[in-house]
Design a protein that fits this description.
This protein is of the alpha/beta class. It is built from twelve helices and 13 strands. The protein has a seven-stranded mixed beta sheet, with helices on both faces. A four-stranded antiparallel beta sheet has the order 9-10-13-12, covered by helices on one side. A two-stranded parallel sheet has the order 1-11. The longest helix has 21 residues, at 38-58. The structure holds 4'-deoxy-4'-aminopyridoxal-5'-phosphate. 4'-deoxy-4'-aminopyridoxal-5'-phosphate binds at residues 7-8, 71-73, 97, 99, 142, 146, 171, 173-174, 195, 207, 333.
C-alpha cells in the first residue's frame, strides 16, 4: 500500500518509536506519579524526560508548561474551555478544524460566549480587524490548513493578537513538526495544541498542550493528580492542574522518541523534503486533465486537496484504494474552509505526504489518476 494520509496520522512509525513503546510496556510498567516504588519512579522519570524533550523542541524553557493529552482535540478543548469567561467574544479563522470549531459553537449555544469567523484569505489582519468587538478576548488560529496545506501569515497574526491583548490559542496539528518550530510565534502564543501522532511520529493517543501559564484558568478534567490529594480542587501548579487521571506512559514515550527521530533526521531537511514533494505533486497533478487542485501555495505543507471532474471525492478515494493508494475524501473535519473553497458539502480528496514518501509515490498517484479506467 502507498500511504498518503499522513495528515490524519503518520504511517509507518519509525522503528525507534516502536521500540521505545515496546520497551516502555515491557520494562517501565508502573503508573507515573502514583507511588514511590521503582516501577512508578521509572515511569515518572520517563514522563519527565519526555516533557523536557518536548519543551526543548518547542523552544520553551519550562517543561511544566507541557501538558500531555491523548490528541490535539483534547488539547484544544482544554485550552478553550479553561480560559473562556462568560460574555467573551472569540475569533476563529475559517481554516479551523472541528476540534476548535465545535467547542466554540457549543460555548455559543450554551450562552457562555459568542464567536465570529475571520477569513484566512487576502489581508488576514484586515479581516480580523473587521470581526473584532469590544468583548473580543480570545483569538484561535490554525496556522496550516489540513485541507489545502496553505499557511496563514502566523507571525503577523500572533503579533497582532498580542498587541490587542487577545489570548492566543494555536492549533499546531499540521504545523509543529513540519520543520523547526517558529520560536518567535511560540513565544507569543498562550496555548498551542499539538498531536503526537502526526508530524512528530508518535503513536496514536499521544499529544500535548503547551500552556504558557495556568494563571486565571479554570480546571478542565477533575480527578487524581498524584499530588496535593487532600485538596478538593485540582492543584494550582502545572502540569498537575491539567493532567487528571493516569497518563499513557507508552504514548508519551513514543512522542519523545518521535521527536528524537525527527531531530536526528533533521527538521530543516524534513521541511525541504516536504516542500520538494508537495511542489512535485502539485506540478505533476496540475497536468492531469479533469483534476482540479485546491490551494495554490508552493513550498506549502505536504497536503494536497483535489477533485476529479464528475467523480464524487468519496468515489475517487475508493478507486484509489482499490489501486493500493490510501487517501482521504470528504470535509476533513474542517467544514468552514470548504465553504470558502466552494467544495462544500462533498469536500475534496486529500493526499498528504510524510517523511517516508518519495517521488515514486507521487508518480503512482498521478498514474492511477491519469488512467481513469484503472482507478
Ligand atoms: N486540527 C487540525 C488542523 C487537524 O488536522 C487535526 C487532525 N485531523 C486536528 C486538529 C485533530 O487532531 P487529533 O486527531 O489529534 O485530535
Amino acid at each position: 500500500m502507498i500511504y498518503l494520509d499522513n495528515a490524519a496520522t503518520t504511517y509507518p512509525k519509525p522503528r525507534d518509536v516502536v521500540e521505545a513503546v515496546s520497551d516502555c510496556i515491557l520494562r517501565i510498567g508502573g503508573n507515573p506519579g502514583r507511588g514511590a516504588h521503582a516501577a512508578s519512579l521509572r515511569a515518572a522519570e520517563a514522563v519527565y524526560d519526555a516533557r523536557c524533550e518536548v519543551a526543548d523542541f518547542l523552544g520553551v524553557s519550562d517543561p511544566a508548561s507541557i501538558i500531555f493529552t491523548p490528541n490535539a482535540t483534547f488539547a484544544l478543548n482544554l485550552a478553550i474551555s479553561c480560559r473562556v469567561r462568560c460574555g467573551d467574544h472569540i475569533l476563529i479563522s475559517d481554516r479551523e478544524h472541528n476540534a476548535a470549531f465545535r467547542p466554540v459553537v457549543r460555548l455559543m449555544e450554551t450562552g457562555i460566549a459568542d464567536y465570529s469567523v475571520y477569513s484566512g484569505s487576502g489581508d488576514v489582519l484586515a479581516n480580523i480587524r473587521k470581526k473584532e468587538t469590544k468583548r473580543t478576548s480570545i483569538l484561535i488560529c490554525n496556522p496550516v490548513s489540513n485541507v489545502t496545506g496553505n499557511y496563514l501569515p502566523i507571525r503577523e497574526i500572533a503579533a497582532y493578537a498580542k498587541a490587542r491583548g487577545f489570548y492566543l490559542i494555536l492549533d499546531g496539528a499540521q504545523w509543529i513538526g513540519h520543520g523547526a518550530p517558529d520560536r518567535d510565534v511560540v513565544g507569543l502564543a498562550d496555548a498551542i495544541a499539538v498531536p503526537g501522532h502526526k508530524a512528530l511520529y508518535g503513536m496514536q493517543g499521544s499529544g500535548f498542550l503547551y500552556l504558557k501559564s495556568a494563571e486565571g484558568n479554570a480546571p478542565f478534567l477533575l480527578g487524581g493528580s498524584g499530588s496535593d490529594s487532600a485538596n478538593p480542587d485540582m492543584p494550582e501548579t502545572l502540569p498537575e492542574r491539567y493532567e487528571a487521571g493516569t497518563l499513557s506512559t507508552p504514548a508519551i514515550v513514543s512522542l519523545a522518541a518521535g521527536i528524537r527521530f525527527i531531530r536526528r533526521f533533521g527538521v530543516e531537511r524534513i521541511s525541504e523534503r516536504e516542500a520538494r514533494l508537495s511542489n512535485y505533486a502539485r506540478e505533476s497533478m496540475s497536468r492531469i486533465k479533469g483534476v482540479t487542485l485546491y490551494g495554490n501555495e508552493t513550498n506549502g505543507s505536504p497536503v494536497l486537496s483535489f477533485r476529479v471532474k464528475d467523480v464524487p471525492p468519496e468515489e475517487t478515494a475508493r478507486r484509489l484504494d482499490r489501486a493500493g493508494i490510501a487517501v482521504r475524501a470528504g470535509l476533513h473535519c474542517a467544514p468552514l474552509i470548504h465553504r470558502a473553497l466552494g467544495t462544500f458539502p462533498e469536500g475534496t480528496v486529500r493526499a498528504s505526504f510524510g517523511i517516508f514518501n518519495t517521488e515514486d509515490d507521487v508518480d503512482a498517484l498521478v498514474s492511477a489518476l491519469s488512467k481513469q479506467s484503472n482507478i
